[in-house]
Amino acid sequence: MQHDKVLILDFGSQYTQLIARRVRELNIYSEIHPFNKIPTNIEAYKAVILSGSPNSVRGEDVLHPDLSEIRGKKPLLAVCYGAQYLAHFSGGLVGQSSTREYGRAKLSYIKEAEEFFQGISVGSQVWMSHSDTIKELPTNGVLLASTHDVANAAYKIEGEETYAIQFHPEVYHSTDGTLLLENFLVKIAQLNQDWTPDSFIEETVTSIQEKVGNDKVVLGLSGGVDSTVAAVLLHKAIGENLYCIFVNNGLLRKNEFTAVLKQYEGMGLNVKGVDATDRFMEALAGITEPEAKRKAIGRVFIEVFDDEATQLKEVKWLAQGTIYPDVIESVSATGGPSATIKSHHNVGGLPDFMKLKIVEPLRAIFKDEVRRVGATLGIDTELLGRHPFPGPGLGIRILGDITKEKVRILQEVDAIFINGLKEWKLYDKVWQAGAMLLPVNSVGVMGDERTYEKVVALRAVESTDGMTADWVNLPYEFLQKTSNDIINKVKGVNRVVYDISSKPPATIEWE
Ligand code: XMP
């Protein structure tokens, strides 16, 4: 089935993915492409959205695509930088605002009887984030809306289906943002709202069947949302020809290996659990440097996975839980490559020598869509609501060298913290939580005894994608109870601290 598609041209805004997700929440399929790589099959897209950008149209580094195949030929919505871009190069004027305009604003004027603003009234809150402003509208520009500080907050071009807005409809704080996108995409551009979990499942199952045929497929399960949903989809398509491998690297959460394995078996998946704890521990002995740990864990994982996969005869495909954000080509504002802060070795990295073909059923969808698809497939909601957990597991939460005893201590601490979050109904309010075992001892007193034991740090963050994050203001009573429980119950720990750093400048994991 061919879906109506929206092309989102990315100028490097931090919100571009959010635009794509908002469009998809309207059950309309959208794709992100860099502004300087407009797809050659432009006729396949029924509408185009230009994103914002950290750049200025007045600077030397103005991002300058040729829109001649788009403008006036199909419905176009330009957001923030996009709106300035259209104004600047089409007879308008963009200048620096007298005040930088960030945050909430209210629409103070809306042109009457405009389909674009249907259902939206003066007073509606919008989210601004710009330092340039549109001083004069472009040729044939018609003012559609203003705020108190921004006279040209929205305009259209007479004679075209071109609309431009200075504010960000994709951001949650723009209260009618989704309605505005719907007005543009459904009322004006007349796209079909047929991109649903059901249609995705149906089409993906058919395409897997066509692609894979009667071949065997192997997949590494991690206990996380993506690999699980990928497995269930593949299982629906090819049944017993899907072979899943779940490796215990000895760095999983407490009881996770047995509990998750049981859950997978209950879902009818053909899964083999491989306990390779000793192999990982041997490879990690004495390693303290974070990147070296990641490399060792990644290498052993591939060895173990390969050993298992080669025992399966005639496997031709490797399935991976790759999702859309992993494959979107990003626009670098500076034009240069971004520095590697941490190498993320995810489960399922493909060793060249395995020579398997790749199948990635979730390649086109975002994490929230993976969850919706998972729910439609009947996967347990608790599993779908799980916090992300790094591939190297507790290995990068034990600072310094890793031993079985340290893993045991951290598993106990982590279990008390995570179970506490669940009991206090805080788990779903937190994007990710975990505990770090620090490589220092501190002095304490228990009864009449002096102790000299380990310090653990608890971390709970809110985030949307892990790229930026802030610490969560957990209730003091909860922290107090959790700290008491940990120190009283976990032998070897006498001090608990709570991490109150945001990302940036800190990262979520300590290593
Ligand atoms: P940082 O620490 O970079 O983490 O702020 C951002 C997100 O990525 C996860 N993370 C990893 N995931 N392999 C993974 O699969 C890794 O090596 C790795 N390092 C960090 C982290 O848990 C957070 O969700």
Describe the structure.
- This protein has 511 residues and is of the alpha/beta class.
- The chain has 13 helices and 18 strands.
- A 9-stranded mixed β-sheet has the order 2-1-3-4-9-8-7-5-6, with helices on both faces. It has a 5-stranded parallel β-sheet with strand order 12-11-10-13-14, sandwiched between helices.
- Helix 5 links the parallel strand 10 (216-221) and strand 11 (242-248).
- Helix 5 (225-238) crosses helix 10 (367-376), helix 7 (277-284) packs antiparallel against helix 8 and helix 12 (404-423) packs antiparallel against helix 13 (476-489).
- The longest helix has 22 residues, at 290-311.
- The chain is globular.
- It starts with a strand and ends in a 13-residue tail after the last strand.
- The model has no long low-confidence stretch (mean pLDDT 94).
- Bound molecules: xanthosine-5'-monophosphate.
- The site of xanthosine-5'-monophosphate (XMP) has 16 residues, from loops.
Intertermini distance: 45 Å
**List of distinct ligands in this structure:** xanthosine-5'-monophosphate
Tally of individual helices: 13
Strand residue percentage: 25-35%
Name the helicity range. 25-40%
User: Structural class of the helices, strands and pairings?
Assistant: alpha/beta
Q: Give the integer mean of the pLDDT values.
A: 94
Q: What is the topology, as strand order, of the major beta sheet?
A: 2-1-3-4-9-8-7-5-6
Task: Please give the radius of gyration in angstroms.
Answer: 26 Å
Give the overall silhouette: globular
* Count of DSSP strands: 18
Extract low-pLDDT stretches.
Answer: none
Largest pleated sheet: 9 strands, mixed
